[in-house]
Design the sequence.
């Protein structure tokens, strides 16, 4: 795991220029204006640690619901992590650690018992027991579409029952080697508050106010088993426009900003604000869909595409420097199956052109579909491909149109996206490269890979499973089955009074561990 | 009111067919209701044909089976026509369903933020009247230098997009001077910058409208008569010229109010102002059909009401319009 913090913008002038060149006009204006703000606007930290501090986190979007079972993925989890607990958690290094469950053991291939922590109560006073945990799982598996996202995370879980007051038994439909990973994503709510406007959790904060789509106000949960020492009041504000969000950080109206473009983060660094960047766990890639363009079935074309990209430049220009170039595999260091011996595709323009020529693919049209969020990155890729003789341009799709394009059938041969396996920290969640249903496109037309994907998903022997995943990575690498690009970072900007921002292994803020200096 | 047109009867021609005739207010209302129906119909099909809310709910990691399950749960696997018929029935009952994401009643969710937007619209209209009319008088009546300066200022106000003006306002008044909050809603201070950003264009348009009306009325008999009776220039302006310019200005303001409700979208998002525009944008990006439909319905109804009130206002200000003389 790599944590970067407090980097000064002056160390990367060339990078700023490239990033700015990729910005849209409005953002350009924001940069000009924010650049006028001088330096060291952030108040200097280094005072005494506060014990009853107020902190505001600003984000371009916030949770759509106070009920964690109805909250959408990463947007909602900044909130849910402060109010609710999970059975187990990832530590900062991505290792599973006890949380509400202090022990767990496999009863058989499809059954696992979790022993709960003693003396935990929800913020409404209800005790945490096995019945409560089982009720949470049963509710999410009820089939209600409102819980679809969370139910998807527990895909293999069939049922949960209380074996005793302290032991909850979880049964899966198939052997699941990553059941613990799944449980890191599952928030436990006091069952008596399932239907309340403000469901209660056992985390370090509890809800005191909520304005839909606007802000969530929290205060310290004094009865939590992992209380917040420094932060008493925590507000999570939605500020959709990044320019306004950056301004709010400058004015002190927010203390932490998430969702800012990389070049704005760099500008803020120059003004004395701190940056905390951590690998998000996702992989920036471009899928090569042979079903849409048969020429992509030619290994020489796929290799040429991989050799055409200068990944260092891509990270600097398209990701604003917040990421790690990757030319070898989907997973990064720290994940089961990462293989540092795999060769990495380098930038070799001449060889790429030669392969294009050999394959008779000069002028091959390779449009790239993506969403507006990744427009700049996809345009950078298109530029590289055009330089070696392909004809590529970017097609922007709405997210709701792009997801079916990604999942089912694409008319475009290239799809730029970022895997979101950070949720599970496991190859299983990159299911796009797994087996396909009838009528569904393959992201890699190699049966061995798909067979291994199926095998590892039920392999309980850790060593055997790691070997399977490494073999999958090797196949993908040898076949140049995808355009590898980078491992992007999750980036936060914060005021000096916050100091270094404590993040969990899931790159989410641990507000209870923030030490505010006044 | 029914009957043959008087002109036809007087001319002794064949009696005209008896037709139902609606009053002007009823005719306007009927036209606007039909417009609303057309708008909702268009919206229904556009929203459904342009994306899949189940896909957004499921996320990129979903399996096709999960996607299908969600689609079924939301009723999106029904034939489009069946969904449309059900939708129209629900609209008549003002039932837009619940938000796909928050689970709240969609119409209540939209109505809860309507007052904030109405407040913003009201403050913008007031600003455009209070500032725009004097600016228009200056444009029409002041000396050459003042007119030139005002003209340039009005051109600038119309040329700068509200988004860009808003960013500039935030930088000056929030970041540099610290006088106003950079974002938010619910307090008088949070209303100032969104109002200025929205009103700049409206002020300029009102000023130009007033100036044009004043200049057009310059040579009219009623003004010459007023001057001949010894009225001062100021009295002629405020008692005679401006009141005659008001119907045209009021008509323009009615259009402005209708525009502002939907035009506030950009400004509300920029300032994180919790109004109907921001709610609509959030819902569009999330493909939250029920909320999108409820928001468009509310905006449509608002436009209908404003147009009806506006027509009545113009008729009150200038009775000639009611008689079809103006």
Sequence:
């Amino acid at each position: 795991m790599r944590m970067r913090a407090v980097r000064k913008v002056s160390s990367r002038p060339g990078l700023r220029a490239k990033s700015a060149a990729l910005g849209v006009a409005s953002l350009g204006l924001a940069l000009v204006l924010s650049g006028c703000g001088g330096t060291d606007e952030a108040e200097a930290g280094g005072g005494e640690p506060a014990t009853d501090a107020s902190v505001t986190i600003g984000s371009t979007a916030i949770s759509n619901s106070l009920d964690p079972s109805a909250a959408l993925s990463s947007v909602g989890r900044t909130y849910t992590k402060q109010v609710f607990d999970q059975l187990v958690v990832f530590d900062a290094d991505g290792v599973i650690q006890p949380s509400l469950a202090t022990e767990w053991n496999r009863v058989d291939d499809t059954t696992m018992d979790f022993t709960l922590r003693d003396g935990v109560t929800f913020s409404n006073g209800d005790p945490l027991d096995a019945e409560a945990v089982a009720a949470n799982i049963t509710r999410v598996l009820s089939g209600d579409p409102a819980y679809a996202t969370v139910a998807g995370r527990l895909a293999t879980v069939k049922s949960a029952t209380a074996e005793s007051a302290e032991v909850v038994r979880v049964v899966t439909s198939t052997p699941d080697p990553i059941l613990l990973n799944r449980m890191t994503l599952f928030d436990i709510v006091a069952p008596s508050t399932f239907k309340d406007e403000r469901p209660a959790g056992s985390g370090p904060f509890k809800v005191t106010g909520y304005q839909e789509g606007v802000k969530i106000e929290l205060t310290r949960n004094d009865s939590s088993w992992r209380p917040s020492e420094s932060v008493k009041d925590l507000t999570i504000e939605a500020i959709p426009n990044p320019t306004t969000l950056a301004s709010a950080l400058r004015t002190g109206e927010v203390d932490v900003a998430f969702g800012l473009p990389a070049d704005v983060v760099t500008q803020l660094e120059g003004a004395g604000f701190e940056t905390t960047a951590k690998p998000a766990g996702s992989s920036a890639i471009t899928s090569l869909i042979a079903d849409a363009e048969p020429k992509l079935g030619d290994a020489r074309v796929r290799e040429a595409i991989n050799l055409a990209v200068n990944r260092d430049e891509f990270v600097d220009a398209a990701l604003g420097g917040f990421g790690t170039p990757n030319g070898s595999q989907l997973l990064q260091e720290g994940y089961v199956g990462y293989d540092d011996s795999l060769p990495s595709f380098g930038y070799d323009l001449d060889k790429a052109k030669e392969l294009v020529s050999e394959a008779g693919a000069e002028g091959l049209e390779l449009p790239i579909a993506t969403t507006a969020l990744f427009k700049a990155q996809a345009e950078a890729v298109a530029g590289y491909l055009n330089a070696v003789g392909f004809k590529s341009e970017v097609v922007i799709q709405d997210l709701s149109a792009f997801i079916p394009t990604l999942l089912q059938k694409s008319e475009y041969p290239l799809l730029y996206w970022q895997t979101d396996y950070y949720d599970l920290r496991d190859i299983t969640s990159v299911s796009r490269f797994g087996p396909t249903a009838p009528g569904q496109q393959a992201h890699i037309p190699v049966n061995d890979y798909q067979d291994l994907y199926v095998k590892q998903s039920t392999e309980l022997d850790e060593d055997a499973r790691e070997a399977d995943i490494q073999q999958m990575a090797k196949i993908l690498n040898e076949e140049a089955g995808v355009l590898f690009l980078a491992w992007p970072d999750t980036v936060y900007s914060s005021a000096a009074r916050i100091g270094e921002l404590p993040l969990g292994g899931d790159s989410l803020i641990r507000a209870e561990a923030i030490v505010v200096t006044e | 009111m029914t009957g043959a047109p008087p002109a036809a009867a007087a001319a002794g021609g064949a009696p005209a067919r008896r037709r139902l005739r609606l009053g002007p207010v009823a005719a306007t209302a009927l036209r606007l209701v039909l417009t609303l129906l057309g708008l909702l119909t268009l919206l229904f099909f556009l929203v459904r044909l342009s994306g899949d809310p189940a896909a957004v709910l499921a996320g990129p990691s979903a399996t096709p089976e999960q996607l299908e399950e969600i689609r079924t749960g939301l009723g999106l696997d029904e034939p489009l026509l069946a969904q449309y018929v059900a939708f129209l029935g629900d609209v008549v009952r003002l039932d837009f369903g619940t938000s796909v994401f928050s689970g709240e009643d969609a119409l209540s969710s939209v109505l809860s933020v309507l007052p904030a937007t109405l407040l913003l619209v009201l403050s913008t209209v007031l600003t455009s009247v209070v500032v725009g009319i004097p600016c228009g008088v200056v444009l029409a009546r002041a000396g050459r230098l003042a007119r030139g300066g005002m003209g340039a200022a009005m051109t600038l106000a119309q040329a700068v997009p509200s988004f860009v003006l808003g960013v500039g306002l935030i930088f000056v008044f929030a970041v540099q001077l610290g006088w106003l909050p950079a974002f938010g809603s619910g307090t008088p201070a949070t209303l100032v910058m969104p109002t200025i950003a929205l009103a700049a264009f409206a002020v300029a348009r009102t000023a130009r409208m007033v100036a044009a009306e004043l200049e057009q009325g310059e040579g009219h008999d009623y003004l010459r008569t007023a001057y001949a009776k010894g009225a001062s220039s100021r009295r002629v302006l405020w008692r005679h010229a401006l009141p005659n310019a008001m119907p045209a200005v009021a008509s323009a303001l009615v259009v402005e109010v209708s525009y502002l409700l939907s035009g506030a979208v950009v400004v509300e998002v920029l300032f994180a102002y919790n109004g109907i525009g921001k709610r609509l944008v959030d819902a569009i990006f999330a493909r939250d059909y029920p909320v999108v439909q409820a928001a468009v319905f509310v905006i449509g109804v608002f436009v209908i009401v404003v147009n009806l009130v506006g027509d009545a206002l113009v008729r009150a200000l200038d009775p000639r319009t009611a008689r079809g003389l103006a």
Summary: Chain B touches chain A through 55 residues (CB under 8 Å). The CA atoms of residues 174 and 181 of chain B lie 6 Å apart.
